[in-house]
């Protein structure tokens, strides 16, 4: 006999765990230990000496650190409970992360990086003892050169925005080497390129000119040509743009920049829909950067850690940051930055764990596999686009009716005008169905935005499930707007307000800051808890190892 299974509703029911869990400092009990630190043996102390005395006086503690005192089992339960109160990429259909590109990272890749030879790798370790890690860097650089069509690659940049900064630093150094640094003081970007491009150029001292779309919603070539001059240092563009629109005239853009002596920088942080289809060098770009933690499957969560790959033409190769890994007589050696190099942009060789993950992902898929992944990402995105536009009140501004590449910046403006429910409120209500949802980064040109990106990782059934939840929330906005406005209802947290986030005097991102701002404690005072019974106990913390 078989048991009948009731069909699951769409969207499915979801109720998040809620433990009302104190923070770890509030669980602290004086004298409780998770581990007993072995006293230093006299022979070791004699050999090493007084290491504390070698520290500058300003770096020496006068009081023990106010660390929580708690047993291992209680620590385990505490953090396990907290994990149940999260919506992570391994738990939900993370289509709603938008331009951040949350892709599935094969768990075998996580196993690869857990070996102590990588986890415990020290930047100052002798290269003779790190040949495997250095080889992974060297090989991935060559793979990224092939994927981009460029001549040389550095993996030193520790994230996407850092990679864009590295691009503009190399551009500035290139023009300086030609005696044109003073003359070329302008950088051109587009309104829908990632804002880090404009920000990095501004920080580097350039005047930033922003190009808006033409009447069809595409990057405006005529506006670019009008803005270009002998003062232009570079164009810095994202393609596809953060709306999901691919610029079909991108080669004309690069040619126009080169015609006035400017360089062309390609922000390929998200290349999920074009791998194996087109390359930066095919359009004539001089420099580009990829986010390994997006396109190449290394996990991307809450802003880090990240890793970027900067790829350049032969003319810009001397300006790449260091150190560089070279192969000499079958061995891998580390070279410090050369005379023209922009120097170090991060400690050591970059984020080696992401390097290994990305290398493993590329080698597992191969060229045909990456091409197929791109095709599926584009197919998934355009299926999602069709389904979302069937929801009343949803739209996709710019290039209306045109297909997009691997993401779309949508708008709830019609729904907002009808119901007064904002995109942000819809996103909060989506969490009640177990889904993440993101609006947009600045500039907020699209009204009431929300940005979705399915990548190649999600099935048709999962995309349908996500769209069903969106449609349900849109219906609730019309029929019961207060339900949406007061969400979340099935989450750990209650409805929150931004007051504390808008007032620096009330920010409290650490326990010490919380005690100082809300209880008036001195910064170097003993750890105190908001719980009355723990407050007295923590007044005299026990020294570590006591």
In words, what does this structure look like?
The chain has 546 residues and is an alpha/beta fold. It has a domain at 116-364: 3-Layer(aba) Sandwich (Aspartate Aminotransferase, domain 2). Helices cover 34% and strands 10% of the residues. The radius of gyration is 27 Å and the shape is globular.
CATH class of the domain at 116-364: Alpha Beta
Find the structural class using helix and strand composition: alpha/beta
The string of secondary-structure elements, in order, is HHHHHEHEHEHEHEEEEEHEHHEHHHHH
Backbone shape = globular
CATH superfamily of the domain at 116-364: Type I PLP-dependent aspartate aminotransferase-like (Major domain)
Question: Considering DSSP H and I runs of 4 or more, what fraction of the residues is helical?
Answer: 25-40%
Give Rg in angstroms. 27 Å
Q: What is the level-2 CATH architecture name of the domain at 116-364?
A: 3-Layer(aba) Sandwich
Query: Based on DSSP secondary structure assignment, what is the total number of beta strands?
Result: 11
The average pLDDT is 89
The CATH topology of the domain at 116-364 corresponds to Aspartate Aminotransferase, domain 2
**Largest β sheet strand count, sense and barrel closure:** 7 strands, mixed
Number of helices: 17
State the distance separating the first and last CA atoms.
64 Å
Strand order of the largest sheet: 1-7-6-5-4-2-3
Strand content: 5-15%
């Amino acid at each position: 006999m078989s048991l009948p299974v009731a069909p699951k509703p769409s969207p499915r029911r979801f109720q998040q765990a809620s433990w009302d869990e104190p923070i770890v400092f509030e669980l602290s009990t004086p004298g409780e230990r998770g581990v007993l630190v072995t006293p230093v043996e006299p022979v070791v102390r004699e050999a090493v000496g007084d290491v504390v005395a070698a520290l500058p006086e300003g770096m020496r503690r006068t009081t023990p650190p106010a660390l929580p005192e708690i047993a291992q089992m209680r620590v385990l339960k505490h953090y396990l409970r907290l994990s149940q109160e999260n919506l992570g990429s391994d738990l939900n259909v993370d289509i709603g992360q938008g331009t951040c590109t949350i892709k599935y990272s094969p768990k075998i890749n996580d196993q690869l990086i857990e070996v102590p030879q990588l986890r415990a790798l020290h930047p100052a370790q002798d290269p003779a003892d790190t040949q495997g890690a250095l080889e992974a860097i060297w090989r991935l650089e060559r793979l990224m050169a092939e994927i981009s069509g460029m001549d040389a690659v550095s993996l030193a940049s520790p994230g996407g925005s850092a990679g864009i900064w590295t691009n503009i630093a190399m551009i500035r150094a290139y023009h300086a080497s030609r005696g044109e640094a003073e003359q070329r003081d302008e950088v051109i970007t587009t309104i829908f390129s990632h804002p880090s491009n404009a920000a990095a150029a501004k920080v580097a001292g350039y005047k930033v000119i922003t190009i808006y779309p033409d009447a069809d919603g595409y990057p405006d070539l005529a506006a670019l040509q009008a803005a270009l001059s002998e003062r232009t240092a570079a164009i810095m563009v994202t393609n596809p743009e953060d709306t999901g629109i691919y610029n079909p005239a991108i080669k004309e853009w690069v040619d126009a920049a080169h015609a006035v002596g400017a360089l062309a920088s390609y922000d390929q942080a998200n290349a999920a829909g074009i791998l194996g289809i087109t390359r930066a060098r095919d359009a004539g770009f001089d420099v580009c950067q990829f986010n390994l933690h997006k396109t190449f499957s290394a996990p991307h969560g809450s802003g880090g850690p990240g890793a970027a790959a900067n790829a350049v033409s032969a003319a810009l190769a001397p300006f790449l940051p260091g150190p560089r890994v070279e192969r000499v007589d079958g061995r891998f050696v580390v070279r410090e930055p050369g005379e023209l190099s922009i120097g170090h942009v991060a400690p050591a060789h970059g984020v080696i764990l992401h390097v290994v993950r990305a290398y493993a992902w590329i080698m597992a898929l191969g060229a045909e596999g990456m091409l197929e992944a791109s095709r599926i990402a584009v197919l998934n995105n355009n299926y999602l686009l069709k389904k979302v536009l069937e929801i009343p009140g949803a739209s996709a501004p710019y290039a209306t009716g045109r297909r997009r590449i691997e993401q779309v910046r949508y708008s709830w403006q019609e729904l907002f005008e009808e119901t007064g429910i904002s995109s942000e409120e819809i996103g909060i209500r989506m969490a009640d169905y177990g889904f993440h949802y993101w609006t947009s980064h600045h500039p907020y040109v699209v009204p009431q935005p929300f940005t979705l990106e399915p990548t190649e990782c999600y099935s048709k059934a999962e995309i349908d499930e996500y769209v069903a939840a969106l449609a349900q929330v849109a219906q609730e906005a019309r029929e019961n707007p207060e339900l949406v406005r007061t969400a979340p209802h099935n989450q750990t947290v209650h409805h929150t307000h931004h007051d504390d986030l808008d007032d620096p005097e009330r920010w409290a991102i650490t326990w010490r800051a919380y005690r100082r701002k809300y209880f008036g404690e001195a910064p170097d005072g003993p750890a105190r808890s908001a719980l009355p019974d723990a407050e007295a106990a923590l007044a005299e913390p026990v020294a570590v190892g006591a």
